[in-house]
Specification:
8 strands; four-stranded mixed beta sheet; 6 helices; disordered C terminus; alpha/beta; elongated; Ubiquitin-like (UB roll); Translation Initiation Factor IF3
Length: 234
């Protein structure tokens, strides 16, 4: 036996439109202001008091300006007579300037070797100080070659020395730890970006890449062959 099933439409409550939704539609101006009366601020900043909205619009038209609702939550709402186009331009300009001033944090990397000498470490510390003053984070990376991996305490001592040298500028986000054949640590700036005034008279900085990679200071194969070689009998 077939049953007739009647479909019933379920209506969902619609979100009530709020003309005062400033975030989506912006402030109400001129004819969009439909409140019977408003509190008006003149173009020169003077308080004109509570007057009928149509009278406030007439005053704005006489001055060849706009009536702009600046505080819709007040009772009655507060409106100001102004040049709305100029107001929006200045507001956009201020937002662009604020965005420009926002500093973007970058991650800089300083590469070291367990055999990096004290002079090179002091030079790299200057790099780190500059990066931290600019508001950037710094990753310290010590790379091991050959048998260097058997003495991680040397790399840890290097990192601790560097961290102590920049402790007034840096916070340790990640202490020294092993990652494969490297030991790393992560530093973050302690305070806001430091604005430098005047010409920077400090000497130009050398490239950040580890200069020990391409020299002959340490050769794994030669070192291992010399250590492991046994005397031959005649």
């Amino acid at each position: 036996m077939a049953h007739n099933r009647r479909k019933v439409a379920i209506s969902r409550p619609r979100r009530r439109f709020d003309p005062r939704d400033r975030q989506q539609f912006g402030p109400r101006i001129n004819d969009r202001i439909r409140i019977p009366e408003v509190r008006v601020i003149g173009a020169d900043g003077s308080m004109l008091g509570v007057i009928p909205t149509h009278e406030a619009r007439r005053l704005a038209e006489q001055a060849e300006l706009d009536l702009v609702e600046v505080n819709p939550k007040a009772v009655p709402p507060v409106c100001k007579i102004m040049d709305f186009g100029k107001f929006k331009y200045e507001e956009k300009k201020r937002a662009a300037e604020a965005k420009k001033k926002q500093s973007q944090v970058e991650l800089k990397e300083i590469k070291l070797r367990p055999k990096t000498d004290d002079h090179d470490i002091a030079f790299k510390v200057k790099h780190i100080q500059r990066f931290l003053e600019d508001g950037n984070k710094v990753k310290l990376t010590v790379r091991f070659r050959g048998r260097e991996i058997t003495h991680p305490e040397m790399a840890r001592k290097q990192l601790e020395l560097i961290i102590d040298a920049v402790r007034d500028l840096a916070l340790v986000e990640a202490s020294a730890r092993m990652e494969g054949r490297t030991m790393t640590a992560l530093l973050a700036p302690r305070g806001p970006k430091v604005e430098r005034k005047g010409r920077d008279t400090r000497p130009a900085l050398a490239p950040l890449t580890d200069q020990d990679d391409d020299d002959d200071e340490y050769d794994d194969d030669d070192a291992e062959s010399e250590d492991d070689a046994e005397p031959t009998e005649d």
